[in-house]
Amino acid sequence: MRDVARPGAALAFAAGLSLIVIPAAQSTTSAQGAGAAGVTETVTPLSLYPAPGQPTPSEPEAEVSTSVVPKDEDDLRVATLHADVTADSEAEQPVENLINSLRTGNHTQSRAVAQTVQINDPDVVILTGVTYDEQQQIAEELGGYLSAGQHTETGLDYPYVFTAPTNSGRESGVDLDGDGTIGGAGDAIGYGEYSGQYGTVIFSRYPILEDQVRTFQNFLWSDLPESSMPEGRFSDLESSVLRLNETSLWDVPVEVDGQKIHVVTTSVAAPPDDADPDRGDDIRRVVADYVSGHAWYLYDDDGETASLLPGTPFVVAGVPAAEGSSAEDLAVLLDSPVLQDTEPQAVTEVPIAERPGSQGEPEAVATRQIAGEPDRRASFVLPSAALEVSGSGVFWPGEGEHGYEVVNPDSSYSLDDRLVWVDLTIGR
Fold this sequence. Notes:
The protein is α+β, with helices and mostly antiparallel strands. Helix content is 14%, strand content 17%. The longest helix is centred in the middle third of the chain and has 16 residues, at 277-292.
């Protein structure tokens, strides 16, 4: 079913699959064609900038732009960031509470996420760890933060937005964690302290072909051939309700100047200490099978079974592992012959080892910091082997570099995760 957009209105589609047009009143845009790299003029509401307690603009001469790589106008920049835009799980109505907080225009986490995206100017950005609500109001509000310039940055116009339900926090009705009671985060289909806690939103400058989107939220773990599900761990009843994906697996086609690029995304919902390595290994195996054309067993939420055809251009993006440790089988993705791992590294001139909060010898590919533990590579952008990559990077500026406030762990404004991006030359 396709609705006709009205100016300034949001579109909602049936079955929880949504293509949202962000209200036009939030920004006015002058773009040099669909492929323009963030050439926008934004009318910023006074409530969004400045805000009490937020960073104040630095003197231009005090900053350098080493951390920012301009995108070639002929490239497609695809980025992902674990945004962690979630609600207070102890609130009486967590989702409604988050929506109300977002509507103030001063939600600190969302402003930092928006600033990070604005600095890096991707054409397609996948935000993981974003709470899902049935009316897609959270995705719409986040679009407003992106279109309004944050901390002297220029707002970005993303007319195409996709979000869909997540298994995170979805009640199973059975005792999955074996603690003798039914209910709580451990008994949800995917880890979550409330329904919809960890979802994903895709923002795009290019049309999302919503009638061709495939979601795999309901695929059962027990239906995976030769799965890693421990024998005897779950009863027949529990196995009949336990889905493989903690959030969901999506295939979202984006049309770029007549060429279709499939954005294949998934995200591990559980914190590292609660993650199930067996389940995570199988999730990554299914992703690898799907993009290589070998997932003959995988049915989508419409009951159709089909993998990507060989040679189909795609990008795998999101958070496919909880820790990025040797206990998790990342090789099934990173060593796949149909994928390429460019190993994006921090774009900076400040030595990584000197970063505040870093433990041990941090690696330039790390995208997540956890207090008291080594930094980890958690977020990935992995293009298909057939795509030409012209550049990649992790947004991890050092002190004195542009955007440092959003990655400095000593700042109350900073994010725990870092944006990672890849530039693709797709023959436009």
